[in-house]
């Protein structure tokens, strides 16, 4: 199994903090968001992690030179040259060859999360699965669930019909990955380079392909879009994650 971290975006809503560094290199608790994600991935028994860069890609390359030895996980960089005019659907498409013959996890690079969330998703056998928080949060991608399957996902899902919030973590296995990239190819061919990859997931669901749910079950996480999110990540979410991990280590 591999992992793809989607880290190509410009993150203009966090300017000036992201005017000289990509969002994945913002620090929370003394480590970058990228380092937090790599630490979580290192516990999932992966073959390789692919980081899709775009905006300020050289900064990510330089950081990997600095931190590579800390993580027992092969790392590969893939560049999205059209990052300024595309969305993460195109970034995932750029990584298709790296995951074409394997199961893979897919991560939004701007999410700080409890590692157990990812480990749980990694063990699931479903062909397609999204990690979902039952709580409905503002300005996030929401999902609609029917009979334990996701039938709609995106910012177009209205709160009254929503069942939860998409965390920004997903897993695809076998037929799920192949079907996903088929839908991505179709969407790109129709000119939807500015879409989220969840548009392809929703097309799968509409066609009857089972998209499973992995609930967070109360584990802490946060998507960092604006300064207030970053402040909350540093003040509340990261300390909560660290306390939980410390308690787990004591029990073990």
UniProtKB/TrEMBL annotation:
Protein's recorded name: Glucose-1-phosphate cytidylyltransferase
The UniProt record lists the keyword Nucleotidyltransferase: yes
Domain MobA-like NTP transferase per the UniProt entry, residue ranges: 3-128
For this protein, what is any one GO molecular function term? nucleotidyltransferase activity
CDD domains according to UniProt: PC_cytidylyltransferase (cd02523)
Q: Which UniProt keywords apply?
A: Nucleotidyltransferase, Transferase
Xref: InterPro entries? GlmU-like, MobA-like_NTP_Trfase, Nucleotide-diphossugar_trans
An example Pfam family from this entry, by short name, is: NTP_transf_3
